[in-house]
């Protein structure tokens, strides 16, 4: 089969299409013919850190048809259109693994014609989503859902500020927060993305992340931050006394200087999160179905254009997710 592999050179220059053996399934696995596979910033981290002679198939998100099932996996799954939960082995939301295991890092990923995954990690696709929309959902949707609801305790009427809200998880968090009746302020570094954020329901848009706290119409009940060092000082000052900050990324830099007085005098809750558990993935799918939320797709491309797509994502010029199509797929 054909797959997108990474080896030898860190970064997008190390990506190439290659022919590799089709994976063999175990007793609890299913084999999926991939219709579409979504690109996440997670893959950028993987290829930046990976070097060596071993060829790693990257990719975490996928939707496709089950073409074979292991003896203990359930033969009724064969022939069904399914969505993959990319986070493996995390069964309890409160029992957080030291490092979550994600498809594409360290195990082989989804940017291939066929993938092997545990049967417990496949779910029916929400019926209102196309294959391309569904492929943009798993990792971004799971991350956003846990950040907003499990960690952020978002309630209707809350004022939530989302930094980096124009990527995959950010646009999902925006749509989810609007769906439950929150007032959302989006922070972006790009003037061109303001109108797109408003289309998704953002009530306010602030352009420029470094001092966004000075431009809010009101303090935030909750700040979701994925930008990191560049925006985090402003996040501390943006929340009301007793407010919450949830960090789920650091696209600029991971290290900050933090005054503990800002936390304990103003009684701010600071949470970190990454990915999510199997029960949260199931609840996220129910949420997306109930509110008919559609992931934002920036573009869909063949795997042969992957190096350029990775570079485009790294530049920050995309709005929503890029989706790869290993085989012919109807948008």
Distance between the termini: 23 Å
Mean pLDDT: 92
Count the DSSP helices.
Answer: 9
CA radius of gyration is 19 Å
Q: Sheet bearing the most strands, described?
A: 7 strands, mixed
Shape: globular
Low-confidence stretches: none
Oligomer: single chain
* Secondary structure: number of strands: 19
Order of helices and strands: EEEHEEEEEEEEHHEHEHEEHEHEHEHE
* Helix fraction by DSSP (H/I, runs of at least 4): 10-25%
Proportion of residues in β-strands: 25-35%
What is the SS-derived class?
Answer: alpha/beta
Folded structure, characterized:
The chain has nine helices and 19 strands. It is of the alpha/beta class and 331 residues long. The strands form four sheets. Strands 3, 5, 6, 10, 11, 18 and 19 form a seven-stranded mixed β-sheet that branches. Helix 3 crosses helix 4 (168-179). It is globular, with a radius of gyration of 19 Å. The chain starts with a strand and ends in a 6-residue tail after the last strand. The model has no long low-confidence stretch (mean pLDDT 92).
């Amino acid at each position: 089969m054909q797959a997108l592999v990474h080896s030898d050179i860190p970064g997008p220059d190390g990506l190439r299409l290659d022919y590799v053996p089709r994976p063999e399934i175990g007793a609890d696995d299913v084999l999926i013919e991939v219709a579409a596979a979504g690109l996440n910033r997670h893959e950028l981290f993987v290829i930046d850190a990976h070097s060596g002679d071993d060829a790693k198939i990257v990719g975490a998100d996928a939707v496709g048809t089950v073409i074979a099932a292991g003896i203990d996996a359930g033969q009724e799954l064969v022939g069904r259109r399914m969505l993959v939960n990319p986070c493996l082995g995390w069964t309890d939301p409160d029992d957080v693994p030291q490092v979550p295991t994600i498809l594409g890092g360290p195990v082989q990923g989804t940017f291939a014609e066929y993938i092997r995954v545990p049967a417990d990690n496949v779910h029916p696709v929400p019926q209102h989503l196309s294959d391309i929309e569904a492929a943009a959902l798993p990792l971004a949707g799971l991350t956003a859902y846990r950040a907003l609801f499990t960690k952020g305790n978002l309630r209707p009427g809350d004022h939530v500020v989302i930094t980096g809200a124009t990527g995959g998880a950010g646009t999902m968090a925006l749509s989810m927060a609007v769906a439950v009746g929150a007032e959302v302020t989006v922070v972006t570094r790009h003037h061109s993305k303001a109108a797109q954020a408003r289309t998704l329901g953002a009530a306010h848009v602030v352009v420029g992340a470094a001092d966004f706290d000075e431009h809010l119409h009101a303090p935030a009940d909750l700040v979701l931050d994925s930008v990191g060092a560049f925006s985090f000082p402003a996040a501390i000052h943006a929340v009301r006394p007793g407010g919450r900050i949830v960090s789920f990324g650091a696209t600029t830099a991971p290290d900050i200087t933090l005054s503990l007085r800002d936390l304990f005098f103003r009684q701010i809750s600071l949470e970190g999160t990454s990915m999510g558990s199997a029960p949260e993935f199931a609840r996220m799918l129910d949420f997306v179905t109930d509110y008919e939320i559609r992931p934002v797709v920036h573009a869909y491309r063949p795997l042969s254009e992957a190096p350029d797509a990775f570079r485009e994502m790294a530049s920050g010029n995309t709005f929503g997710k890029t989706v790869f199509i290993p085989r012919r797929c109807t948008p």
